[in-house]
Write a structure and sequence with these properties.
3 strands, disordered N terminus, mainly alpha, 3% strand, three-stranded mixed sheet, globular, 11 helices
């Protein structure tokens, strides 16, 4: 890749090496990943269809849930099929440009997902603290604008990742010790200083992860205070059930996310690479797999809609026979 004394060209391709140290058990590791991917596809597509089909779910909270499901679908589909191809068919090679595209989509979708969790917290806050003004505060126009702003924030903050990576000289190995093109895993292959990249990763982690989590924490603190003061036991139980679903989704998303983001700059020499890569894959796969289950179990309106949908299909089948 070295052209002259001071000039370099980008590699034509990278080799994604999967999970280093665990190559012999790639096939076994792929089985739970494949199962989770199938569950995520069925669960999220089912949730999106249910929200679209049932008019009783045409409310801001469920629109935000549909957004979350779509983002989860795109996120896991960006990485998991490639990871399975590495494990099953040893297809490790990826074009340099395709690697940068995958990098952008992976980080972009995860950034948007964090913003959608804020929108869900906002919806929950308005529904519990200002129930009489809910319809006037969260109109369809506001929901659309909030969704667009969330999408643009996630995308714009992630655009520099592939740009910064493309500007680096790669004159060493082109083997990525990962199952997908993670930004830091790629730039560590450069023979130049990656200080700017590390600083930008930390800045994005603060602007998106820490900032969003602080906003969500403040929202749910105020929500829980309002829930405790409710006079009706049924209202408290319903509110707690909704909050539990949201908080579960937040924990599922942010715990592996922070581990993944802060491992590269601070724990790269103390945490085994295999553990980091497994958690990085779970960070992209756990939320899409568990979110539909959590919301389906904890949200009464979704449970009722599922029952109604299946009863309607059963009745139609009986009438057809």
């Amino acid at each position: 890749m070295l052209v002259s004394n001071n000039s370099y060209v980008a590699p034509k391709s990278f080799i994604r090496n999967g999970i280093p140290g665990l190559e012999r058990v790639h096939m076994w590791i792929s089985l739970p990943f494949c199962t989770m991917y199938i569950i995520s596809l069925v669960g999220n597509l089912g949730l999106v269809y249910l929200i679209h089909h049932e008019e009783s779910l045409h409310h801001p909270m469920y629109f935000f849930l549909a957004m979350l499901s779509l983002i989860d679908l795109f996120t896991c589909t960006t990485t998991l099929p490639n990871a399975l191809c590495i494990c099953w068919f040893n297809l490790k090679k990826i074009n340099f440009s395709a690697c940068l595209v995958q990098m952008f989509f992976v980080h972009g979708f995860t950034g948007v997902e964090s913003g959608v969790l804020i929108l869900l917290a906002l919806d929950c806050y308005v529904a519990i603290c200002y129930p009489l003004h809910y319809a006037t505060i969260l109109t369809n126009s506001i929901v659309a604008k909030a969704g667009l702003a969330t999408f643009l924030r996630g995308v714009l903050l992630m655009i520099p990742f592939p740009i910064l990576a493309k500007c680096l000289p790669f004159c060493h190995s082109n083997i990525i010790s990962h199952t997908y093109c993670d930004h830091m895993s790629v730039v560590k292959l450069s023979c130049a200083s990656i200080k700017v990249n590390v600083i930008y990763v930390l800045m994005v982690a603060l602007l998106i992860g820490v900032f969003d989590l602080c906003c969500i924490s403040i929202s749910y603190t105020m929500i829980l205070r309002a829930v405790v003061s409710l006079s009706s036991a049924d209202a408290r139980q319903k509110a707690f059930s909704t909050c539990t679903a949201h908080i579960s989704a937040i924990i599922i998303t942010y715990v592996p996310a922070f581990f993944t983001f802060f491992t590269h700059p601070f724990g790269g020499h103390t945490i085994p690479p295999s553990l980091h890569i497994i958690v990085a894959n779970l960070y992209l796969l756990l939320p899409p797999t568990l979110n539909p289950i959590v919301y389906g179990v904890k949200t009464k309106q979704i449970r009722d809609s599922v029952i109604k949908l299946f009863q309607g299909e059963k009745s139609a089948s009986i009438q057809g026979n």
